[in-house]
């Protein structure tokens, strides 16, 4: 493609324009403290508590009002601090993720961040690029764009000089150059995005979150209404009954779930960034942990991506010394400029090394016309004219495609190609047609073959062993010949159970292909559409699928996978389609990401299991006691303070250690597990609470302040210390050690709760000092309770969970997922959207 006549803007001119029109961005991510704080205050229960506390203040209950206000403020502060930290982590991630465009600045073709483009810049576009702004095309050669992101139309749109390439669309064929006419919000893409604002249409995940949250609200509302009505019947003051009921409602909900999940994801993203893994969607970290099948390309992942020209040979296998009419010269003449493709780069490097031996110079030929490589033709071609005025069409590409367009192919040439493929070489056929003034890709004469090598990547065998140990099956999707792929698998120790070529896949319907997938390791000579189809059918079988690729032909499959993975050096469209971007294309790095995802998932489950059972158990105890005692078992401010201290002890769960067996396989859980856990351990907790109530009333004959102080300490100790039991399937501390931070946090909270009855302001909180005899009783109850939980836990873990019912497949939902696991995905996706400001 010719250079545009314009020299483009200088950097200084572009900076001046950018100062007037702003950066080329629809909107940028910024951690906004006010927005984070507003999200913390959206809880209707917190608002009701603040209103009730205000009323209490003005009717004379000023101590209770101040205590409740302080507790609510601390609770909001904890949530704000952790979510804002996660927002800052996402902001830092966005700084890593920058796309670049080829632009003329001062007559020189350079790469610039797309955010720096301004109207008047001259931009070049090529296959796989995401159009960085609205661009008026001055030149276009076989140029097509996928505009589905704007129009929903799946077929590419052909663009000619004078047309506008729209921001956000993807170049699917050809090359072009033009001038930026609109940037940022002034583009068609920007107008649509601005119209959507910060809100997106509700997804299946968000619908599930709404239903799951609705269930919790229903439980809290039913319990609150029952407690409120009971307290009124027993003649307690209206304000006291309302405050206590609201405190019960706050206590029954796992309020820290968003904070725990967001903190886990943000912590995981920081760890993965240090491991050279950038996560574009925080939720993709946990999605990585679910991966069971990994489809990957071959070049750069399993090989070193150091493609070198091994030799050029004539059709009979004779080496080409680099003469004027050999496959080497024709391959160089047909190659795109350096930086276009690894194979063409290898040709340029070989040409540079052999320049002293050459008697011909490619610059003495003029390129008249060209058709770039595409995945349908599987070839590229040029029409060139030499100094003598002789023209010829040169075609290079996949041997099957090129040989099919040749007039006559000796049988020895076909055998030569098969032999080279069997050796594991990457092979490109070169053919020519003499004397035509137009580019014609038929009736060609075979000139020979270009033989390339790409050795296996060091350490790939160990990475494959790690993935196998994690329960991840690796399969290869490649455009290479089947023999090349299977030869590589033999070298790196990846067992090949079956091979399917693109032609065979085309003949299979979806049901037949689904049957063939389990027994197939290598999918060769596959088109982009076939890659996406394979990934989609594998997902529909109920498995969690990741796809690793960095080329234009990988974009469809990246979109179709549960987790799309690319590299920072990949094509723009591949990086944009991916959920995870690797700074180093290494399966070992990917294995680290999978382990991190499972670690986060395991720690989230710890909070859910413990929080659901403990909260429900304690709040049921409080509700039951309020119905039979002549006084409230805890004051509203004490319930909230207890809940705040408990929540504070759980903030270190995201950093907790995880047992090895929890990382060995993808984690699965369902509503049945949560329900059974709640129904077993909730009543167990309440049983000990009620026993403590009986001892305090019948044995020690305690007054209300002492009763409340004793139960405050016992309740806080049981629900916080039980984390050490439920966090592991093993024997606590002996065979599974928690993180030091978790031990310290729980210890500090229990000590604080124990010290409160003895504090100078204890009477203001409605608490009284606890005598040693009652402290000893609390200690005995606590020890017996924890020992019984450990025994029941072992029995509980051995009972098989009931099978969850299956729901219909959805584009974003796993078929094997149960209703609750879908709800968790909703939580995670909703938090990721919230954290990314989208």
TrEMBL record:
Residues 1-61 form the Cation-transporting P-type ATPase N-terminal domain. GO terms for cellular component: plasma membrane. It is an enzyme of class 7 (translocase). The chain crosses the membrane at residues 41-59, 65-81, 215-235, 241-266, 677-700, 706-726, 738-758, 770-788. GO terms for molecular function: ATP binding; ATP hydrolysis activity; P-type magnesium transporter activity. It catalyses: ATP + H2O = ADP + phosphate + H(+); Mg(2+)(out) + ATP + H2O = Mg(2+)(in) + ADP + phosphate + H(+). It is found in: Cell inner membrane. Keywords: ATP-binding, Cell inner membrane, Cell membrane, Magnesium, Membrane, Nucleotide-binding, Phosphoprotein, Translocase, Transmembrane, Transmembrane helix. It is a multi-pass membrane protein. It holds the Pfam family E1-E2_ATPase. The keyword ATP-binding applies. Its EC number is 7.2.2.14. The keyword Ubl conjugation does not apply. Mediates magnesium influx to the cytosol. Belongs to the cation transport ATPase (P-type) (TC 3.A.3) family. Type IIIB subfamily. Belongs to the cation transport ATPase (P-type) (TC 3.A.3) family. Type IIIA subfamily. This is Magnesium-transporting ATPase, P-type 1.
């Amino acid at each position: 493609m010719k250079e545009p006549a314009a020299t483009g803007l200088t950097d200084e001119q572009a900076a001046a324009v950018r100062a007037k029109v702003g950066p080329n961005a629809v909107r940028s991510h910024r951690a906004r403290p006010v927005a984070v704080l507003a999200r913390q205050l959206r809880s209707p229960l917190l608002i009701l508590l603040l209103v009730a506390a205000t009323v209490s203040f003005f009717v004379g209950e000023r101590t209770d009002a101040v205590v409740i206000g302080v507790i609510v403020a601390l609770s909001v502060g904890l949530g704000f601090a952790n979510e804002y930290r996660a927002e800052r982590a996402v902001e830092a991630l966005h700084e890593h993720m920058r796309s670049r465009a080829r632009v003329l600045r001062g007559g020189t073709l350079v790469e610039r961040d797309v955010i720096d483009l301004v109207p008047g810049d001259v931009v070049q576009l090529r296959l796989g690029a995401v159009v960085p702004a609205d661009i008026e095309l001055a030149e276009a050669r076989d140029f097509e764009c996928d505009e589905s992101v704007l129009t929903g139309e799946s077929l590419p749109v052909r663009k000619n000089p004078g047309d506008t390439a729209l921001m956000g669309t993807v170049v699917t064929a050809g090359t072009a150059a033009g001038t930026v006419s609109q940037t940022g919000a002034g583009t068609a893409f920007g107008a649509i995005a601005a119209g959507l604002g910060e809100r997106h249409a509700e997804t299946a995940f968000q619908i599930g979150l709404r239903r799951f949250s609705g269930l919790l609200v229903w439980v809290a509302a039913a319990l609150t209404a029952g407690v409120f009505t009971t307290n009124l019947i027993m003649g307690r003051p209206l304000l006291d009954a309302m405050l206590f009921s609201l405190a019960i409602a706050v206590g029954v909900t796992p309020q820290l779930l968003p904070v725990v999940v967001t903190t886990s994801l943000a912590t995981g993203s920081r760890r993965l960034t240090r491991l050279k893994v950038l996560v574009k969607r925080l939720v993709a970290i946990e999605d990585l942990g679910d991966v069971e099948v990994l489809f990957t390309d071959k070049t750069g992942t399993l090989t070193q991506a150091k493609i070198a020209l091994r030799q050029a040979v004539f059709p009979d296998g004779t080496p080409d010394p680099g003469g004027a009419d050999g496959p080497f010269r024709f391959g160089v003449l047909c190659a795109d400029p350096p930086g276009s493709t690894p194979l063409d780069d290898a040709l340029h490097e070989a040409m540079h090394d052999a320049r002293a031996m050459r008697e011909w110079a490619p610059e003495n030929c003029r390129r008249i016309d060209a058709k770039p490589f595409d995945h349908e033709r599987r070839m590229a071609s040029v029409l060139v004219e030499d100094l003598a005025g002789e023209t010829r069409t040169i075609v290079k590409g996949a041997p099957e495609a090129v040989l099919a367009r040749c007039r006559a192919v000796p049988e020895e040439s076909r055998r030569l190609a098969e032999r080279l493929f069997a050796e594991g070489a990457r092979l490109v056929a070169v053919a020519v047609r003499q004397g035509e003034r137009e580019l014609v890709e038929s009736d060609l004469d075979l000139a020979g073959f270009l033989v390339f090598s790409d050795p296996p990547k060091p350490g790939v065998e160990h990475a494959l062993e790690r993935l196998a140990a994690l329960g991840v099956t690796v399969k290869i999707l490649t455009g290479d010949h089947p023999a090349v792929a299977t030869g590589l698998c033999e070298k790196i120790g990846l067992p090949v159970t079956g091979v399917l070529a693109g032609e065979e896949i085309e003949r299979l319907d979806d049901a037949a292909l689904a049957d063939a997938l389990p027994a197939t390791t290598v999918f060769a000579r596959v088109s982009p559409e076939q890659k996406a189809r394979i990934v989609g059918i594998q997902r529909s079988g109920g498995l969690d699928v990741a796809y690793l690729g960095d080329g234009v032909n990988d974009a469809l499959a990246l979109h179709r996978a549960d987790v799309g993975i690319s590299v920072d050096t990949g094509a723009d469209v591949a990086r944009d389609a991916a959920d995870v971007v690797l700074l180093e294309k290494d399966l070992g790095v990917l294995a680290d990401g999978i382990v991190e995802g499972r670690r986060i998932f395991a720690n989230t489950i710890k909070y859910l299991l413990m929080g659901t059972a403990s909260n429900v158990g304690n709040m049921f105890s409080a509700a039951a006691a309020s119905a039979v005692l002549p006084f409230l078992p805890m004051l509203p401010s004490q319930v909230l303070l207890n809940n705040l201290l408990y929540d504070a002890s759980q903030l270190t769960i995201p950093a907790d250690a995880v047992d090895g067996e929890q990382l060995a396989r993808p984690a699965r859980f369902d509503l049945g597990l949560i329900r059974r856990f709640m129904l077993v351990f909730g009543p167990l907790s309440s049983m000990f609470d009620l026993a403590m109530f009986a001892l305090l009333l019948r044995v020690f004959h305690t007054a209300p302040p002492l009763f409340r102080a004793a139960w405050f300490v016992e309740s806080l100790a049981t629900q916080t210390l039980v984390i050490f039991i439920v966090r592991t399937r093993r024997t606590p501390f002996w065979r599974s050690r928690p993180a030091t931070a978790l031990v310290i946090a729980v210890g500090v909270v229990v000590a604080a709760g124990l010290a409160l009855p003895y504090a100078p302001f204890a009477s203001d909180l409605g608490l009284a000092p606890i005598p040693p005899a009652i402290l000893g009783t609390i200690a005995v109850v606590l020890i017996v309770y924890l020992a019984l939980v450990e025994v029941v836990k072992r029995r509980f873990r051995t009972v098989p969970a009931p099978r969850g019912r299956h729901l219909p497949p959805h584009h974003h939902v796993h078929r094997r997922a149960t209703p609750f696991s879908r709800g968790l995905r909703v939580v995670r996706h909703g938090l990721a959207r919230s954290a990314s400001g989208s």
